[in-house]
Design goal:
It is built from 8 helices and 30 strands. By secondary structure, the chain is α+β, with helices and mostly antiparallel strands. The chain has 3 domains: 156 residues, Sandwich (Jelly Rolls), CATH 2.60.120.260; 74 residues, Immunoglobulin-like, CATH 2.60.40; 300 residues, Glycosidases (TIM Barrel). Strands 27-26-25-24-23-30-29-28 form an 8-stranded parallel β-sheet. A 6-stranded antiparallel β-sheet has the order 3-2-4-10-7-8, with no helix packed on it. A 4-stranded antiparallel β-sheet has the order 1-12-5-9, with no helix packed on it. α2 runs parallel beside α3 and α7 runs parallel beside α8. The longest helix is centred in the C-terminal third of the chain and has 20 residues.
Length: 566
Amino acid sequence: MLNDLYTVAGENLTGTPWEVYPRPQMKRNSYLNLNGEWDFGVGNFRFPDPYEKKILVPFCPESALSGIHEHFPEGSCLCYQRKFTLPDGFLKDRVLLHIGAADQHLHCYVNGTKIGEHSGGYENITFDITDALVDGENVLAFRCMDDLRDLTQPYGKQVMKRGGMWYTPVSGIWQTVWLESVPQNYIQKLHIENKGASVTISVEPAMDGTVNVPETGSYPLVDGSVTITANKPHFWSPEDPYLYDFSVEAGDDRVESYFALRQLEIRKIGKYPRLMLNGKPYFFHGLLDQGYWPDGLFTPATPECYASDILAMKKLGFNVLRKHIKVEPEEFYYQCDKLGMIVFQDMVNNGEYSFLRDTALPTAGIQKLDDRKLHKDPKTRETFLSSMESTVKQLKNHPCILYWTIFNEAWGQFDSDNVYEQFKKLDDSRWIDSTSGWFRREKTDVDSRHVYFRKVKLEGDGVKPLVLSEFGGKTYPAEGHIFNPDKTYGYGGCGSLEELNEAVRKLYMEEILPCIHKGLCAAIYTQVSDVEDEINGLLTYDRKVEKLKAEIMLPVAKALQEAIQR
């Protein structure tokens, strides 16, 4: 029997959820939140009349917080409706509707007029709804269709029959719905690219204007772009997450944002290449982060939940979260920027998964495979590449992201050398892990390995920095905080918290630490929290029990960092 677990934030949720401004790197003084109670129903291609249910947006219908707590058959048409009236003084020239994300295919209507549609369950969606608006009350409606039988669409860890390392599927709206009003000539996109002590800021479409950085001065936009080089750069790091605020005035528009300066490079020190942060070898001491919540699934009860997870991990000495097969709302990355948590960001896989090919044989040591003929379906490949491009463009302004992962454990993997080259054109300012785990090819910035079920004994090849991108996963069942008491999952059980703490400490000190002297640059432990059947988290799924103690883990973190700087 599955238990309903709630975070403290979920237990105390009141009012309109997620009222925080949804786009912290491009803020305007125009914002109307449309989260809250919506009419909801399941239909075919017509909206229900009448609607039979209410749903709490932005929580997906499968979640307890939504008020629905049900997954509907694959291919169902999920229908949403609510009414809104623009506040006095809100309207400028145009009104933009934003949906943070909806899984997977969304159709939008305003006052019965179809505005547009979008496919892709992890991408920001924007529609200009100005011409469909009327004075007074307006009716906004969505139809969302999601079908996990269609493996061409990115789906991550969602499966129709959850269990083990695969989780409850999510459908429909799962991020904030909101409105803003903009002038006729407005900034549609803001691009921020940092390399070392320089940052290039540009606007789209290209317009004349000014970038104002209170700390250093004002700079003119030339053809919509300006490069600023700091004479005395204050570099960003987990230990000192320094952010420069700035504003942009272009056309008739004004937006507020921030950037950070940090220097990434790969440099050979002695026998082995190292990942360098701000000119020094740095050990990337991280955790796998699935981004699931017991009460909201894809969406935590409140945005403050992100900061709680980040700070809990920093308290234990960790400096990296590997965001695993999921793209989060921008609030997550903003908190990582602000609080000082490095992000290794995964792309979201599509394509068919094979347990034998993708997990069993590689875990047994068969880790060589020519991927040029894998996942040959043209639509599957085209959809992955399109989603990859959207993900990079959506997230690349965030300085916390230092590292991209393209394919994980061969899930959806194809022609990775070629995909690496395409990725480089999207972003050449960060490190790229083409194949995390196995089935390594030639083109990648790092040598990325996974080790479970055996001791960690790794040595770098002296050519690429060595990254242990998954390991660990030791389990402890915290009574009263287990989602599935009948069938738990993980990689090595511990009978008490004391036993777990000693096992994790010993794993780092006896297996990870010696590998640093053999080229290891990063290690990502599984994982931040328990997730459904998995009980290998450092926090329970409901985030109410912290399993590891800071007095044990902080000396470990210190030893790892000291070792790489010797």
